[in-house]
Amino acid sequence: MAAKQGTPASALRVLEEALGMDLTAAGDSAEAVAAEGAYYLEQVTITEASEDDYEYEEIPDDNVSIPEGEEDLAKAIQMVQEQATDTQILEQKTVLPSKQPTPEVIEDFLCNFLIKMGMTRTLDCFQSEWYELIQKGVIELRDIGSVPDVYTQNMLLENENKNLKKDLKHYKQAADKAREDLLKTQKERDFHRMHHKRIVQEKNKLINDLKGLKLHYASYEPTIRVLHEKHQALLKQKMLTSLERDRAVGQISGLQATLKHMEIGHNYHASEIRVIPNSEKENAPEGPTQKGLREAREKNKCKTKIKANTKDSEFPTDMQPNPNLYLCKENIGPAKFDYKLNNIFRLHELPVSCIIMHPRKDILVTCGEDRLWKLVGLPKGNVLLTGFGHTDWLSKCCFHPSGNKLATSSGDTTVKLWDLSKGNCILTFEGHNHAVWSCTWHSCGDFVASSSLDTTSKIWDVNSERCRCTLYGHTDSVNSIEFFPCSNTLLTGSADKSLSLWDARTGNCEQSLYGHMHSINDATFTPRGHMIASCDACGVTKLWDFRKLSPIVSIDIGPSPGNEVNFDSSE
Description:
The protein is built from nine helices and 20 strands. The protein is α+β, with helices and mostly antiparallel strands. A hairpin with a 4-residue loop joins strand 19 (540-545) and strand 20 (550-556).
């Protein structure tokens, strides 16, 4: 029994030593170890036995069943009580004594402090000198004591203080970031508030302008009514004047017939009738009415002669093949871009708007905003001819297919045709309501096409001297127009960002090409006619397949606008 009681006591002592509860016993063991020599800590790994190798003890079943036929109330009550007692015993939990916090030894405190600070060399020196002193007996472990709670508490407070400082630093950074976001948000709010105020001011201004325009428009109605009445009165006066003119013309015709018969001498005698000679009539003073009648009669005679002698031209049906199809050769050599400035010609006082080369000779024509065009010989640059006649800037010029005529378009809403052999204007086309931007000749030389700021294009007949057709369809200024080589097809480029192909015989739009994002300034065909090039106000140049009517490539050479585009003759 004594041996059996000693075993749990020794186990309890080992447990107390492991938990550090019996400090005196720990001190005695330390003295014994110090007397024997220095000791070191070793890491020991305790492996648990596998559950597969453990032999489990079979527990018999305690459930006692009462056989049938031997039921007894007392035995049943006893059995129930025993089961309840067993259940209570199983439900009871073993309560271990709570572990008391063991104060830290000064040696451990110092070692932990050095490890925490990363002072490894100082730790090695301390341990070697400390254990040497203990081995010599200079220092006794029981006299050392433990670290006071104040130092431990100070360390805990210091750690907590560091953690709080870190948190404070993070909070400060978050607060600074929140302050910056707040300032940024306030600035954005102020900006949007000012923008809103400006929008409200513009809105109020527009409302006031609309009210003013409505009032202004309302004030026009009586004025328009008065002008309409005046127009009707003027029409009546015009009708009466035309009747009086016709009557006067009839009287003059009768007088002329009478004079003619008097000269022949039929049924009249000169002695009996006094007739004023023609010389006296010519020398007699002419009143304003007679003068106006004479001018009107002369104009009517001229118009009658012109109408009698002119006839509308016919668009060619059997067009000759394009000669450029056979002249073009493939350029095998590399492209040359080493162009050098050869000469400068100062011809105009204002900016130059157009330059074209003669189809056969070494001469060129320049148009400027000084209302003049000049024929210049190359390479000296001598001015051969100067054209006067337009009352506003010139926008474009184009040679007749034969090269002996020139067509010019101007801001004065007219298109003029010039004879280059004489240098004078032979014909003027009037009909556009605004400035004319471009003009071009048909390959047969009988038609001229023009495009204008009034969103229309017109086809003019050179022989009958009238407008044969007006092309409607664009919604903005038509800036460019050109005939397809040896064809009745027209190409127009407009500020509504579209290209249109027209049949000049019918005036119908056959196809429209879309793709530009800005106003189209110029468009042209290749000499062979298989491609179209166009440029817009932001410097974007596009190439189109004329057969498929689809874009090929887009080249951005902006931001400056592209005013004119052209192909090399080898293309």
